[in-house]
Each structure stands twice: as structure tokens, then as C-alpha cells.
Amino acid sequence: MRRRPRVASRIFLALIYLFLYAPIFIMIVFSFNASKSRSVWSGFTLDWYTELFSDSMIISSLTTTIGVSVIAAIVATIAGTFAAIGFFNMRKRWRSPLLAINNIPVMNADIVTGVSLCLLFVSLGSVLKYQLGFGTLLIAHITFNIPYVILSVLPKLRQMDRNLVDAAMDLGCTWFQAFYKVIIPEIMPGIINGMMIAFTMSIDDFVISYFTAGSKVQTLSMAIYAMTRKRVSPKINAVSTLLFLFILLLLIIINVRQIRQEEREKKLRTLKSK
Amino acid sequence: MKKRLAALFAALVFVLALISGCSTSKEEVNVYNWGEYIDESLLKEFEKQTGIKVNYSTFTSNEAMYSVLKTGGAHYDVIIPSDYMISRLISEGMLEKLDFSNIPNYSLIDDKYKNLEYDPTGEYSVPYMTGTVGLIYNKAMIPDEIDSWGALFDERYAGLILMFDNSRDAFGVALKYLGYSLNTTNPDELYEAYELIKAQGAVRQAFVMDQIFDKLESGEAAIGPYYAGDYLIMLENNPDLEFVFPKEGTNRFVDAMCIPKGAQNKKNAELFINFMCSTEASLRNMDVVGYTSANREASEQYAAMLDDHAKAILFPSDEILANTEVFLNLPQDILNLYDELWVKIKS
Amino acid sequence: MKLKYLSAPYIVWMALFVVAPVIIVVVYAFTSAAGEFTFDNFAKMGGYVSVFSRSFLLAIISTAICIIIGYPVAYILSKERARQQRILIMLIMLPMWMNFLLRTYAWMSILENTGLLNRLLTLLGLPAVNIINTPTAIVIGMVYNFLPFMILPIYSVIVKIDRSLIEAAQDLGANAVTVFRRVIFPLSLPGVFSGITMVFVPAVSTFVISQLLGGGANMLLGDLIEMQFLGAAYNPHLGSAIALVMMVIVMICMWLMNKFGAGGEEAVML
């Protein structure tokens, strides 16, 4: 009675994974294709990869993307954590409307956020003699990243036992020490979680960057979009493959660390119960 | 203390942003051109010769370029729009006058492209390339004799038909087929063209610009309107492709280099324009792009290298040229009508 | 010890970069190119009802398909062994991290007339299908891109359901179906609503998917807005009006979701 549903659900799962991964694998396979065709195989070559590495536009868009994502994630995490702690310590009357405003970039469609920021930057820009560029791109990314950090840290703050802080203070900690030694470690999973989400959102973003980066800088998504409007080149496939491998590596590292951490905790627990 | 720290961070971010947004130390020039419209090695050549870095980006149509310029966020130093768009930009005060002392190679430009109606004083632009629009089809997939724009609306080729993804060119095809002028300001004629293009939806595969290269070369589609120079490039990859000047007449155009108002690297822009005018650069460009350069010597040299088929297409006979029309800028209310109808067609 | 002042810098930031842009959009929406107050832009939107309805229809269909496929996947995953679960969830997340344009682009090479799908079909002797450049292709693209965003929230919530509740139900004599219907499903609804939020909003406002897979016609709201700013029909006032309407519609949907029990305060992702 238990066996049959198992098989059916296995097949179903397999089909879904096939659906999710088939296009990616097809992209990877054809990145090695000797001709430009995306559906007819004509032999193995690494040419597209060499072309990719000599394409300065793509390389610079890659560095821009990583730069923006890393900086935005870090700034958003710090700012978001402080903001979350600040919000948490507010009275509900102030907190609710502020959280509602905070949610606007999350709830809003990308294109609305992008267009509204574009209008803002252009209006301010004409007054301040300021142009769209890396700066505005960064500001835009930070703006849509911080809410995710806050949404990630707040639940952890709620879960935290307030007595811990009081206990630390009773034991002689200054408020500063209590902050760094008690509060931060307790909410650290939320902070890390928030940082990862922020980083992912930034790397993958296309629409908001499209409207706020201006003409001088380009993110990888923007470069790819420009490539799709012209002659297609399997360079896109090569970019896909490399990105895929990088992310796979990243996820494996994260998960291995998580597994190790959980096993450490399990050991601690079994030790404690002895 | 925490308050100060957090405030410090915010200030730091602002400063960082302002700094990275404002200045750049290296000499550079921002160029905005059509897609597939330049030999990219020329950009590196220019950098080597002058030390000025070229930031090159592309647009898909004159209207898209206009929107980007108007929205105001992007700042380009050199733009390469088509004739009618240049006259629009001039009338709206969006172009800088060129300092021709920085562009000595202007003397190499063929006189027949100078001071045309889109830029009568010639102060705002330097001709880049010229060409014509025609009908390209795959004779292996469509064995019929094609000689009319009507083929783009023909049910026999349903699902294999491509169409221009910009309003002037698309309407141009429809208007010519209906026997009207490309520059008509008669709303009834425009509505007729609109209905025709809307009805084409039943047989049309897609609206394309540069995506047409892959589609026609791979046989994904079999017929579509596009520019003569691009046809020669496509022909290299698929010898089954044919080019024809439809009997109803077509468009001929000149694309020219201009400098938008407020460009920050005007001198560098003029140096770039000068470089692109040179015979050497024009020859290399024509070879890669396929169009006819405005540089007199280069285009003569190039014509000598072509076979008859290509020559007939790039340097059409006077008879065919007489049947071509140039796009003119239209009054604002007609432009608004175009926008409205175009959005309706795509929706 | 006034911890609440920690959020002061961010409040300033929000005022400048979240609230001000919205106000600017509102201002643009209600002004004409000449700068006077007008309702014209909203009146013009009446001509684009087909775009609105197409966007909503396709978004609803895509969201529905994501729920139909995503819910069972989330449920099955939640029953796997812990080790397996982590790896399987990671595999669901991986495509999410891949660039969204690339994922959409991948489908082009599959669905094209000379693409892989048709080559496979002709090889098997079946007739070729014309999916590319139709709304079907857009739906496939949307489902493909957004499916993980539906699976993960549902999974996160199901996995947290207290086992003792299920055991209690079983002790009281419920069979598997009843346990699902009366215990698991109701408790999983917050996750479903979360998933709907994360799929419907991007689906209704996407603009790249329709351009790559829809063939340039089949315009969606995102394309319409983009056209007014950086595309072929410059009119930021009309664009702002449409954006404003979209914002309002999304807010209404969110409010409805909130009323029916979603938390909205947790980021259920990793």
C-alpha cells in the first residue's frame, strides 16, 4: 500500500527535474557546438569560450555585476540588520506603517520599481548634474535588497529570547557587548539568510538594472539582453555554462557547510544530554 | 554610538555612490549605434591610435534611440541615427553643432550625401552609411517569383513571414504596397496601413530587427523585409537567399553620425567621427557590414571588388533609385498617431 | 539604549528612494507632456484593455499551473528523508539562481520551428508544432521561470507543520486522504499564498519573456510600460499611469492575500 504511491511520485519528481534542467543542459551541450546552430550538432569546440574571454564587453559587465551585487549585499545586510533591530524596538504604531513602506519594493513589480527609480534619478540628476551610472545602479540594488534583509532578520529577532539580553546585562556586560555577543549571534542565521537572498536578487536582476544603469555601465543580464536582440552567438551558451558551474559550486559549498554545522550541533546535543 | 555608526555607513554609501557616479579619469567616448553596424575591430584600432576608450552600445530602432535620449538617463557622445530621425532631433534642439576643424576627413565624404534635406546646413551630422530596404526571401523554401511587398501578406507563406519591428519601416512597407507615400500625413491612409499590418498577424511569424539574421539563415523563417547591406552578409551564410527591390518602390536612407546636446566628451566624439570617415576605416567597415559607405573613395574601391549581383544591390540602377523615397520627419500629431497605432499593432 | 534610532538612517533612505519615486510616478501619471494636470493618460489606457487582459490571463494561467505542479512537488519533497530533502531542494533552487534571461533564452532554442522539440517530433514521425511566438510559449516560459518560486514557499511551510498534529489525526482514525484534506492542506495555505504572491506579480509585469518567446506581438503590460520609457513610443506620462495602475492592482491583490491568512512578514526562501 505504501510502495505504489512511492513509484508514481518518484516518476513525477523525475519529470519535474527533467523539465527544470533540460533547457539548461541543452544550453550547456550547445556551448560546445562547432557551428552557430542551436539545434544541430556539428562537432566539439571550445571556440565560444575563447571568444567569450576576449569579449571585453561581457567581461566588464560580469565585473560590474559581481561588484554591484557584493557591495549591495554587504551594505544592505548591515543597513537592514540595524534597521530591523530599530524597527523591532519600536512601538507597533510606528512599526506597522514603516514595515508597510518597507515592503513596497518587495511587493511592487520590478518594472515599476525600475521605472520609478529611473524617473527619480533623472529628475535629481538634472538638478545635481549627476548621471546614471554605477552609483545609481548601486543605490537601486541596495534599495531593493534591504527589505529582503529586514524580512529575514525580523522573524529571528522575534524568536530571540529577550531574557538573554537582560541576563547578559545582569552579568556585567555593557550594552555594546550585549549587542555584539548576544543579539547578533542569535539573529546571525537571519542575517546570513538575508545576505544570500540579497546577493541572489542582485545577481539575477535585469529589469531594475536596465532602467537605472544608464549608458556607461552594464550588468551581465543587460549584456545578455543586448545579445538576444542581435545575431545570436553560442557565446550566450558559454556564459550559461560557466554561470551554472559557478552557482553549482557555490551551492555545494554552502550546503556542505550547513551539513557540517548541523552535524556539529547534533554532536553537541548528544554530548549535552549525556 | 550605534546611531553614529549607522549614520556613518549611510554617509559612506552616499559618498561612494556620488564618487563613482560623477567622474572618470580616463578619456572615453560613448557611442550609440545600430546593431550589427560596425566592424568592432575598428573600435580597438581607434583606441590604439588615440588612447580614447570606446564604450559601445547598440539600439534596435531610431524610435528606441529617441526614447532613451529623451528619458535622459543615458549620456552618449556619438549617435548614429537615420535621416528622418536626425531632422527630428535638429528640430527639437537635441543635437550639438559639429566643430569641423576636428573632422578634416569630412572632405572625403561624397558630395552627394552632404547637406541633404534632413540636415540642410550640414552642421549637425556626418554621413556614415547609406542603403536601401528590400525584400529578402529563401528561394529554396519559396520557389515562386517574388516582386511585390504583397508577398509579406500572402497566406501561402503563413508562419514564415517576418516584419520590421519599428513603426516607420513597417508602415513604410504597408504604405508602399497600398500605393501611398512613405511620408503621408493623411490619417486615413495611415489607418489603412494599420489595418493591413494588423491583419498580417494571421500569417506573420514575428516582428524582428537584427534577429532576422539567424531566422533567415537557419531557415526558421523564409521571407522578410530588411536592409540591402545585411542581405549580403546573410547571403554568405545561406546562399539560398534572394534580394529583390519590390515593384511598388521602397525606402533609401542615409545614416549619419551626430553628437547629442550636452555630450560630455564632444572633442573625443569628433575625433571618433573623423576616424570613421577615413577611407581605411570605411573600407573595413563596408567589408564587415555590407552597406555603402559615404566616403567617396572607399565606396568606389569597394564597388570595384564586388560581383555583379552584389553591385546591383548595393549600387542600384537609376531606374530603381527613382522608385525609392526618403523618410522625412513628420509633424508631431502624426508622430503621435504613429506611436498610438504601433502600440495597438503590437498589443 | 534607544535601539529604535538604529533604523533612522534607513527611514531617511526609504523616504528618498522608496517613497519619493512613487510620488514622482504619481505626478507623472497625472500630468501631460506640457505639464498640466490631466486624466488623459488614464483615458488613453482604455485603448489597451487587450494588453491588460492578456497579461492578467496569462499570469493567472501560469500561476495556476505553477500551483498544480508545484504543490505536489513540495508535498512529495517534504516526505523525503532529511539528507535527500536538502539535496533535492538545492536542485530546485539551482535554476532559480541561473540568470533569468538565459533560462528564457534556452526555451527559444527548444521551441523554435527549427528547434529541438520539432526535430525530435519529426524524428519520431510526428507533425511539427508551432509553439514559439504564441501565448503558449510565453506561458511555458513563465512557468519555467517561476515554478521554483512556488515550490519553495509551500515546501518551507509544509515541512514546519507539527508532526504531532498529523499523528494526532491518525490516532483519531483519519486515513491519509483525510489527514491531508483536514490537517496538512489548511496549514499549508500560507505557503501557497506566499507562492502565489511570488509568481503572480512577476508574471503580470514581465517584459522580457514576451519579447523572446512571444514574437514581438502578444504584448504584455511590462512591454507596454517599457515602450513608453526606453522603447519605441516615448511617453513617460502614459507609462507612469500604467505603472501606477499596476501598483494599485498589486496592492489590492496583496491586501486580499493578507486578509486570507498569509503572514507576509517572513521571507520564506532559503
Descriptive report:
- The complex is a heterotrimer of chains A (274), B (347) and C (270).
- Chain A is an all-alpha fold and 274 residues long.
- Chain A has a domain at 58-235: MetI-like fold (Orthogonal Bundle).
- Chain A has helices spanning 3-30, 47-53, 56-88, 92-107, 110-128, 134-159, 162-170, 175-204, 207-212, 220-228, 235-273.
- In chain A, helix 7 packs antiparallel against helix 8 (175-204).
- The two termini of chain A are 40 Å apart.
- By secondary structure, chain B is an alpha/beta fold.
- Chain B folds into two domains: 27-130 and 254-314, D-Maltodextrin-Binding Protein, domain 2, CATH 3.40.190.10; 132-252 and 320-346, 3-Layer(aba) Sandwich (D-Maltodextrin-Binding Protein, domain 2).
- Chain B is 44% helix and 18% strand.
- In chain B, helix 5 (167-178) packs across helix 6 (187-200), helix 6 (187-200) runs parallel beside helix 14 and helix 10 crosses helix 11 (296-305).
- Residues 19-23 of chain B have low confidence and may be disordered.
- Chain C is mainly alpha-helical and 270 residues long.
- The chains are: A mainly alpha (274), B alpha/beta (347), C mainly alpha (270).
- Chains in contact: A-B, A-C, B-C.
- At the A-C interface, helix 1, helix 3, helix 4, helix 5 and helix 6 of A face helix 1, helix 3, helix 4, helix 5 and helix 7 of C.
Helix and strand arrangement:
The complex is a heterotrimer of chains A (274), B (347) and C (270).
Chain A: H1 3-30, H2 47-53, H3 56-88, H4 92-107, H5 110-128, H6 134-159, H7 162-170, H8 175-204, H9 207-212, H10 220-228, H11 235-273
Chain B: H1 2-22, E1 28-34, H2 40-50, E2 53-59, H3 62-71, E3 78-79, H4 83-91, E4 125-138, E5 161-164, H5 167-178, H6 187-200, E6 204-208, H7 212-218, E7 223-227, H8 228-237, E8 241-244, E9 250-258, H9 266-277, H10 279-289, E10 292-293, H11 296-305, H12 308-314, H13 318-322, E11 324-325, H14 332-346
Parallel strand pairs in B: 1-2, 1-3, 5-6, 9-11
Antiparallel strand pairs in B: 4-7, 4-8, 4-9, 4-10
Chain C: H1 8-29, H2 40-45, H3 49-78, H4 82-97, H5 100-111, H6 116-123, H7 135-160, H8 163-171, H9 176-205, H10 208-213, H11 221-229, H12 236-259
Helix pairs in contact in C: 1-12, 3-7, 3-9, 4-7, 5-7, 7-9, 8-9, 9-12, 11-12
